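Figure 3 (text version): structure tokens given as input.
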């Protein structure tokens, strides 16, 4: 079994295990000793536990209408066994070294948080405000995080950092893509959007000549088009963005992104002006749907009838007050003494990042009143 499979197995076990299953393989002192020995010397299959499981379970059950059975079923194989086979590795993505997995039913994504500054910020600073906020803002664009998993105790793998010690489980904004492909529809497009006016060393030092194209391709995308919306659609979109980013700025978060998904809207061939069949784009039995569609989570039809869009705010785990962020800010300030490139998206202030982020979001929207 390879590294990715072993990491996946530890994630799945943490999600679906029961109290009975915990004790089944460690009966007696010898069994317990062997289990502890195996866990300590494991390189990849760390012992993971849910962090504040009651808070996430409350969100899932009472606000997102996800039953415990439906949630855990997504992490089981077709045979009903809990194993790594129920997670599909998407690969290593981004500069943070994060690993991504998708459940086989495509409802949930699992992202690792390998940096201490990231998972400590979320668990110690942002988790309580996030839980309270998501319970009172059903139309929030912040990605719905369904669980936080953290390593329990020390092991060789955790010490050597051969496997991530923390992971988040979040709903998949791209859920339904495979179903759409099976129906023969055009593939969905997606963009990971951040303000591009910041200093990016990979792009801006020596005109990017010192960095590979593969590395530069992992920088923030640019959306060279417009989301055409009615006034009320745009107002709803901007109101959610304002409220969500206010929460993030209040807790010193920067460098988050807007994940934008675009699908071609179904057309009616017998009319001169195409009419979108918005409801047909919502997958059957999608995860954590409330409120009812249309929303930016399930799909909002552009007023020109051409596209259906989804949007979500992701990656809000970089906080200015953490040691890693302070060190990066110090380095960039030293650099700017000579070269005056300005701040990076990870070294600017939360209020300044929020301002540029909102400006970017407004720039990709075109309002057409009836």
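Below: residues designed for each position.
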């Amino acid at each position: 079994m390879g590294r990715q499979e072993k990491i996946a197995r530890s994630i799945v076990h943490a999600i679906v295990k029961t109290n009975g299953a915990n004790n089944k393989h460690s009966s007696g002192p010898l069994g317990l000793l062997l289990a502890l020995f195996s866990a300590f010397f494991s390189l990849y299959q760390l012992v993971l536990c849910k962090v504040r499981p009651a808070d996430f379970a409350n969100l899932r059950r009472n606000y997102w209408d996800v039953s415990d059975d439906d949630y855990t079923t997504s992490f089981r194989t077709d045979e009903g066994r809990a194993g790594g086979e129920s997670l599909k590795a998407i690969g290593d993505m981004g500069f943070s070294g994060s690993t991504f997995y998708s459940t086989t039913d495509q409802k949930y994504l699992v992202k690792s948080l390998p940096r201490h500054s990231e998972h400590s910020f979320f668990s110690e600073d942002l988790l309580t405000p996030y839980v309270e906020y998501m319970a009172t803002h059903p139309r929030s664009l912040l990605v719905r995080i369904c669980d936080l998993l953290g390593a329990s105790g020390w092991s060789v793998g955790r010490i050597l950092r051969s496997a991530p010690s923390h992971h988040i489980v979040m709903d998949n904004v791209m859920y339904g893509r495979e179903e759409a492909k099976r129906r023969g529809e055009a593939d969905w497009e997606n963009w990971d959007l951040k303000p591009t006016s910041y200093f990016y060393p990979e792009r801006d030092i020596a005109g990017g000549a010192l960095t590979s194209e593969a590395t530069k391709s992992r920088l923030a995308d640019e959306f060279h088009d417009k989301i055409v919306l009615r006034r009320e659609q745009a107002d709803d979109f901007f109101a959610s963005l304002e409220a969500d980013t206010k929460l993030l700025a209040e807790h010193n978060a920067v460098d988050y992104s807007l994940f934008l998904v675009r699908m071609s809207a179904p057309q009616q061939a017998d009319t001169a002006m195409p009419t979108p069949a918005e409801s047909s784009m919502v997958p059957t039995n999608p995860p954590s749907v409330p409120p009812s569609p249309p929303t930016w989570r399930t799909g909002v039809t552009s007023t020109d009838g051409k596209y259906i869009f989804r949007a979500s705010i992701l990656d809000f785990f970089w906080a200015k007050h953490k040691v890693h962020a302070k060190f990066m800010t110090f380095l960039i300030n030293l650099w700017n003494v000579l070269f005056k490139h300005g701040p990076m998206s990870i070294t600017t202030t939360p209020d300044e990042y929020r301002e540029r982020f909102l400006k970017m979001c407004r720039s990709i929207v075109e309002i057409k009143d009836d």
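The CA atoms of residues 245 and 355 lie 9 Å apart.
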